[in-house]
Every structure is written in C-alpha cells, then in structure tokens.
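Quiz preparation item.
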C-alpha cells in the first residue's frame, strides 16, 4: 500500500482566513497607534513653541511700553523747554502751519498748508539764486570758450 502525500492535502496557506484578518487588524491598530503618538508629540512641541512665543511677545510688549513711556517723558513740552534753555537755544515749538507731516513713503501728506508755503519759499529762493548766479555763469562760459 502506498503512502499518500500529505502535503498535497494541505491548504494553500498556513494561516486561515480568521488568522490573516486578526493579523491585518493588529497591524492596522499598531500603525494607527503610532500615528496617534507621533501626532500627539508634534502637538505638544507646537504648544511649547507657542508658549515660548507668547512669553517673548509679553516681554516685548512690556519693553515697548517702557520705551514709549520713556520717550513721552523725554518729549514732554516742559522738558523740551528746559533743555532748550540749558543749551542756550532760542527756539519755540512750531505752529501748526509750520509743521509738515510725512507719510510712510517719505513724502509729505497732501493738503497741508505748510507744504504749499514751503514750496513757494523754495521757488522764490531758487529764482533769486538763479538771478544772482547769471553773471557768474556768463563769465565761466566765456572762460571756457577762450
């Protein structure tokens, strides 16, 4: 009597469908758990960075307030008058029509009376300078020709 080959009777896989499903479930659960832990650690590190940024923001805000208070103290009108007297400068605080407010671009803001007056003064000064420089220009032009 011949022996039967037992290997042929085995199924194609050692694992049954139930075992393969359980392994797949365990691998999925493990990978999801690792993702959860990694995301938790990342959230914790972001929270720490945020706390440090908030702390630095509070310190900078306090420092800014101190500097602004110091600046306001230095620029007080009576304090400026005191310094002007101490250094012997005969100056007064400018009138509203003497002040020119500048924009962020570095140019005067439109619609200011002082800007119009300053341009008029510059135009008259340039005209006066041009008229006084005319004989000197003629002399230099003649010297270049010779």
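Solution:
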């Amino acid at each position: 009597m011949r022996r039967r080959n037992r290997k042929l009777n085995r199924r194609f896989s050692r694992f049954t469908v139930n075992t393969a499903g359980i392994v797949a479930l365990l691998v999925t659960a493990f990978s999801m758990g690792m993702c959860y832990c990694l995301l938790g650690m990342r959230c914790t590190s972001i929270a720490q960075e945020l706390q440090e940024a908030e702390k630095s923001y509070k310190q900078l805000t306090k420092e800014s307030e101190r500097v602004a208070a110091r600046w306001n103290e230095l620029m007080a009108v009576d304090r400026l008058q005191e310094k002007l007297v101490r250094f012997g400068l005969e100056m007064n605080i400018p009138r509203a029509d003497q002040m020119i407010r500048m924009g962020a671009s570095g140019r005067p803001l439109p619609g200011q009376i002082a800007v119009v007056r300053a341009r008029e003064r510059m135009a008259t000064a340039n005209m006066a300078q041009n008229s006084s420089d005319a004989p000197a220009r003629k002399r230099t032009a003649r010297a270049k020709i010779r």
